[in-house]
Amino acid sequence: MEGSPGIGGRSGSPKIPPAMEELQSRLQETLDLLSSQELRSFRDHLKKVEPRVSQVKLELEGRSPSGLARLLAKQYYPPAAAKRVLVQVLEQLPRADLLPRWQSAAADGPVIPRKIPKRSYDCVEGELDRYDLSGRRKAFLMCVMRDRLGAHQDVLLMEDWLGQCQFENTLCIDPDKMELLGKITSFRDGLNEIKDDIGCCLVALMSHGEEGFIKMKDGEKVSLEGIFEMFNNKNCPALQEKPKIFIIQACRGERRDSGVETDDEPMDSDDGSEKKRLPTFSDYFIIYPTQADHVALRDPRTGSVMIKAMTEVFKQYGNKWHIADFFTKDF
């Protein structure tokens, strides 16, 4: 869970045009005004707009308002194209109160929204749509401990939290590529065998990594997209319309967020009559500790920053908040 992007990235990194940056900011201002349900509907309507956003990209990058704004800015740049798409989708929701800021050329200034929707931590019991978690809760926990001081603490924290949340946990420590793929495939196949009794699934992968990949103890790389694909609605029907949580505690590149100096100890560094149809990827919640191309932080004594913060939040608010809000609430 790193802060804002660093100012001293690698030379040669692509620079975002100021106009695209401004477009992304405006898009996020609008998307931040949508409730969790409206955001899901926005993504569903967006799948029907031409040119279409890749379904995999939409599920992997567009889960949060900030990620969706970034994806839209890249996909539909220049601003005129993004404006057309946004108006088209907002009309379908419907959120007519948000249209004025995009329908006129003079709408570049701030527009006061008619209503600020409540987040889940502001809601009272029974106001939110919920998943049915009455079935068995299954978790797959993989951790590479070799050359990762503090990783054992991550495993202890995760096991403690998963136990409190009544997850049945499958542990995989220091695997090579073939061992990981074999164990996670067996885990997935086991879910399909008990299809009707599954409430949700959590997969935690903790190791070194780079953008799009996680590394095994011998440095061999495993594609994260391949892992995500194993649990989609086609390959894992047991999890259709059930939450699939992926926690990726790993670096996503070599860049560091320069941030500010503190007195703390240094950290070590580590994606009608017809049958009802579902998209191939749905109900995914993918959590990374850092932005793309950056390292992740891990304390040699207390473990990874994200894992520690996440377990504390889940323990305190696990029965009260929408799952997406666990990773966006500021303290």
Characterise the protein shown here.
With 331 residues, the protein is an alpha/beta fold. The chain is 34% helix and 15% strand. The chain is built from ten helices and eleven strands. The strands form three sheets. A five-stranded parallel sheet has the order 2-1-3-7-9, with helices on both faces. It has a three-stranded antiparallel sheet with strand order 4-5-6. Strand 1, helix 7 and strand 2 form a beta-alpha-beta unit. Helix 1 packs across helix 4 and helix 4 packs across helix 5. The longest helix has 17 residues. The radius of gyration is 21 Å and the shape is globular. The two termini are 13 Å apart. The relative contact order is 0.14. The N terminus is likely disordered.
